[in-house]
């Protein structure tokens, strides 16, 4: 046993050290960096200060945080709404079709994120298909292109994360015991009431997982605002990037990152603990039953 | 026959969702074969844009860089990740913190890791380039290889290892002759997964590549190209990449599944 443990430590050590050096240490460094002063020509002065955090909660950056949250929130609501109904439609399809439908719903997720986003530039730009199509329909001068607006960013986020919502909502729907719904209908509930009182509450874990995922990845998103929002339009991820690479204010960038990472981690942890609780409850139900 | 209520409504929901998911990609693929290159006019089938692609030096250099990054980081991650998986599984009990450190790279959003690595490299005054991209990619590749190999180890019959030791084989011989051959499909599958992830990865590469032109990977090249608008060449490139990654992932899944079943 002792020998096995020794060998196991030898096997674990290289990967473990790698993760410590390139994941744990960098994350700790961000935590520390935010409390230092910015040097006059960029770089860092090692004097303790809280002014970076004062700046974060200053109107400019707090405003960017709020607008990022608003965009991420809107994208989340739309993605969850569409994704849930898609998952519901798949889960109520004939059993033999379900794996295929699910496979094709998730397939786009396997292709490159940049390319999926680029596909919308192709569709939305001023010489693009949508504007061309509206001209062909005879709308005078065509509808204006929404590319490089907030709507385009939201659309891109919804498009990119929809497959994940479908997947996470499908899981509880497929597991759901059909007897519950039948019992409800037999007892005289309308289809809508059955949906509202039985199906929807039972699918909450899937909806929550999908929503948290979309929100977390949207609020910290860097690619979609840069591409579909044009340069004019900034979300917090882009601002952080600029602090590190163009504005050269690393401590402020670190402080902004810390707040962003904090928001993300809190949401992910709430979701993880909620999921754990629902699994615990399920086990308990099985034991009781 | 079970009654299927709301058949039409369900069908229209599915039609809408699948159209939403596939029209943009299909338009992109279609346009890459469009002779004239204009998005609104179809002027005939052509492979012109694909040929153009192979004459573009920037794209070829970026492709070479990407292959270097993906290959080196996959090799490192496959070796370390497999060792990690075996090490973790032969242990009686693992601390929670060890488990969380192993899982963390799969859960942490890319942007977080990217920012953290960028600030560390900047603070330590490390010149960034292909090497910093490679060591950064190993972080998440490692976690994926480890989880694929561990899944295979869960169904592993440890008595063959004991048998080998009882028959007098050294632990190295046992590892080489018994454990590794049994694990090989999972190792290859995990490695392919890591390779694909690394080929596609943009954010971490973008943040840890430094300013040099020599360290531009293909996704970074695509990013800078599409910021300036639509060209038929990018359509062709995008089409190729989409097919390549879907193909690699299907192979990876098939190798692993073929053994399990």
Automatic annotation (TrEMBL), chain B:
Residues 63-253 form the ABC transmembrane type-1 domain. It is found in: Cell membrane. It is a multi-pass membrane protein. The chain crosses the membrane at residues 12-33, 58-88, 100-121, 133-151, 178-199, 234-251. The keyword Zinc does not apply. Pfam families: BPD_transp_1. Its main location: membrane. Belongs to the binding-protein-dependent transport system permease family. CysTW subfamily. This is ABC transporter permease. It comes from Marinomonas piezotolerans. The lineage of its organism: Bacteria, Pseudomonadati, Pseudomonadota, Gammaproteobacteria, Oceanospirillales.
């Amino acid at each position: 046993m002792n020998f096995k443990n020794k060998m196991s430590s030898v096997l674990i050590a290289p990967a473990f050290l790698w993760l410590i050096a390139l994941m744990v240490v960098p994350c700790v460094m961000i935590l520390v960096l935010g409390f230092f002063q910015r040097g006059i020509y960029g770089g860092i002065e090692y004097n303790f200060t809280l002014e970076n955090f004062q700046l974060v909660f200053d109107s400019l950056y707090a405003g960017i945080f709020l607008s990022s949250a608003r965009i991420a929130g809107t994208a989340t609501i739309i993605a969850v709404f569409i994704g849930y109904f898609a998952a519901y439609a798949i889960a109520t399809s004939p059993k033999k079709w379900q794996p295929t439908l699910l496979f094709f719903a998730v397939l786009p997720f396997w292709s490159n994120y940049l390319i999926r986003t680029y596909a919308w530039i192709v569709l939305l730009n001023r010489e693009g298909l949508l504007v061309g199509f509206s001209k062909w329909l005879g709308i005078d001068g065509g509808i204006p292109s929404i590319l490089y607006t907030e709507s385009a960013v939201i659309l891109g986020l919804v498009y990119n994360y929809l497959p994940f919502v479908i997947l996470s909502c499908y899981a509880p729907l497929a597991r759901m015991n059909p007897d519950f719904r039948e019992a409800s209908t037999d007892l005289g509930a309308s289809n809508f009431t059955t949906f509202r009182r039985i199906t929807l509450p039972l699918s909450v874990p899937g909806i929550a997982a999908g929503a948290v995922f979309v929100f977390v990845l949207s609020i910290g998103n860097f690619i979609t605002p840069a591409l579909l929002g044009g340069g004019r339009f900034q979300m917090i991820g882009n601002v952080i990037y600029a602090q590190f690479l163009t504005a050269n204010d690393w401590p402020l960038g670190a402080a902004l990152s810390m707040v962003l990472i904090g928001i993300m981690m809190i949401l992910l942890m709430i979701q993880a603990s909620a999921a754990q609780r629902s699994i615990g409850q399920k086990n308990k139900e099985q034991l009781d039953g | 026959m079970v009654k299927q209520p709301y058949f039409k409504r369900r069908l229209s929901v599915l039609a809408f969702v699948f159209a939403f998911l596939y029209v943009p990609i299909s338009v992109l693929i279609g346009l890459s074969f469009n002779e004239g290159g204009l998005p609104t006019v179809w002027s005939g089938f052509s492979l012109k844009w694909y040929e153009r692609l192979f004459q573009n030096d920037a794209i070829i250099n970026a492709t070479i860089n990407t292959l270097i990054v993906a290959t080196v980081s996959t090799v490192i991650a496959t070796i370390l990740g497999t060792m990690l998986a075996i090490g973790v599984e032969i242990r009686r009990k693992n601390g929670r913190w060890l488990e969380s450190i192993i899982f963390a790279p799969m859960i942490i959003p890319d942007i977080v890791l990217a920012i953290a690595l960028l600030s560390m490299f900047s603070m330590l005054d490390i010149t960034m380039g292909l090497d910093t991209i490679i060591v950064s990619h190993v972080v998440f590749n490692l976690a994926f290889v480890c989880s694929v190999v561990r899944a295979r180890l869960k169904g592993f019959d440890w008595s063959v290892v004991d048998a080998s030791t009882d028959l007098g084989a050294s632990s190295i011989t046992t590892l080489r002759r018994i454990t590794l051959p049994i694990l090989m499909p999972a190792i290859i599958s995990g490695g392919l997964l890591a390779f694909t992830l690394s080929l596609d990865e943009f954010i971490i590469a973008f943040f840890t590549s430094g300013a040099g032109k020599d360290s531009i990977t293909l996704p970074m090249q695509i990013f800078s190209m599409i910021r300036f608008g639509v060209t038929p060449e990018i359509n062709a490139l995008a089409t190729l990449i989409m097919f390549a990654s879907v193909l690699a992932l299907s192979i990876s899944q098939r190798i692993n599944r073929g053994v399990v079943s």
